[in-house]
Design a protein that fits this description.
The chain is of the alpha/beta class. It has a single domain (3-252), classed as Vaccinia Virus protein VP39 (Rossmann fold, 3-Layer(aba) Sandwich). 35% of the residues lie in helices and 17% in strands. It has helices at 8-11, 15-18, 23-32, 63-66, 106-116, 127-130, 134-139, 142-147, 153-160, 196-200, 203-206, 210-226, 228-232; strands at residues 38-42, 55-59, 76-77, 91-97, 117-125, 167-171, 174-175, 241-242, 246-252. The strands form two sheets. Strands 3-2-1-4-5-9-6 form a seven-stranded mixed β-sheet, with helices on both faces. A two-stranded antiparallel sheet has the order 7-8. It is globular and about 60 Å long. The structure holds S-adenosylmethionine. The site of S-adenosylmethionine has 24 residues, from loops.
């Protein structure tokens, strides 16, 4: 569990530019936090999705990410999910947004979330659904292979469900103009994946063999130039939001 194992210590530069919180996703997270007054945001990064009007404490290991937090954002403690420096039940709720798959020990981190909070809200994804996303299925199936090794929906659900805590899972559709440039954000704006800066802010791409990624991107570029991509994905152009497998998992103690 060293900082070197965390890709965000190296790929985090430029994160705050390409990964701006999306207001529609923020609204779902805020709703999931319910009446919580005190919130711990674990794997907080640059502060995306930290709700207003609640007392937020951020935990983040990467100095590169911490340095990009806006002035006036919630106080941040440099630390890891696997060992949170807070007493039991110190917070009404804990949130962990697109971060659990980076933790070196997801089970330990999720147990920590349950130890320090009464309610947990985790944004993750269902690999069975995300594998069908055109970028993965048609250009970079290596993403699905890498995904299989990461802690995603099943792991999050299993570890939050301990002791019979009720868990709810809700789909988080990705808006066509999503402002948070994660892997699925540009499903209706395929040209965006041609931009190396955009790809650098997406860990699923940044951790792959870059020659493989370049080859896939050249193929996408060609399919866009010939109109092949548009022929194949015409139906997407009329959609406003798409289910790419992102899931909000909510758990609460009895
Ligand atoms: C994709 S970013 C998400 C950041 C933020 N939650 C957001 O939604 O923009 C993943 C974050 O998890 C952090 N991270 C990696 N390993 C971690 C660990 N063991 N404990 C807590 N955070 C970790 C990374 O440094 C990075 O900031």
């Amino acid at each position: 569990m060293t900082a070197n194992a965390n890709p965000y210590q190296t790929i985090g530069l430029g994160y705050s530019h390409h990964r701006r919180p999306d207001p529609r996703i923020a609204a779902l997270i805020d709703q999931a936090l319910g009446s919580a007054r005190t919130v711990i945001n674990v794997g907080a990064g640059t502060g995306s999705y930290e709700p207003r009007g609640r007392e937020v404490t951020a935990v983040e290991p990467s100095t590169v990410m911490i340095e990009q937090r806006a002035p006036g954002s919630a106080p941040v403690v440099q630390g890891y999910a696997e060992s949170l420096p807070f007493p039991d039940q110190s917070f009404d709720a804990a949130m962990a947004i697109l971060t659990v798959h980076h933790w070196s020990d997801a089970a330990a981190g999720l147990a920590e979330l349950r130890r320090v909070s009464a309610r947990q809200v985790v944004l993750t994804w269902d690999p069975a659904v995300s594998a069908r996303f055109w970028l993965v299925a048609e250009y970079l199936p290596e993403i699905a292979v890498a995904d299989a090794r990461l802690a995603a929906l099943d792991a999050v659900r299993t570890h939050l469900e301990r002791d019979g805590a009720p868990v709810a899972v809700v789909p988080v559709p990705v808006p066509a103009d999503c402002t948070d440039g994660f892997l699925g954000a540009y499903w209706r704006r395929p040209h965006r994946y041609l931009d190396p800066q955009v790809r650098a802010a997406i860990s699923a791409l940044a951790i792959l063999d870059q020659e493989q990624v370049e080859r896939a991107v050249r193929r996408l570029d060609a399919d866009l130039a010939t109109g092949r991509w548009h022929e194949r994905h015409r139906a997407l152009l009329d959609a406003d939001a798409l289910d790419l497998g992102y899931r909000l998992v909510m758990a609460a103690a009895h």
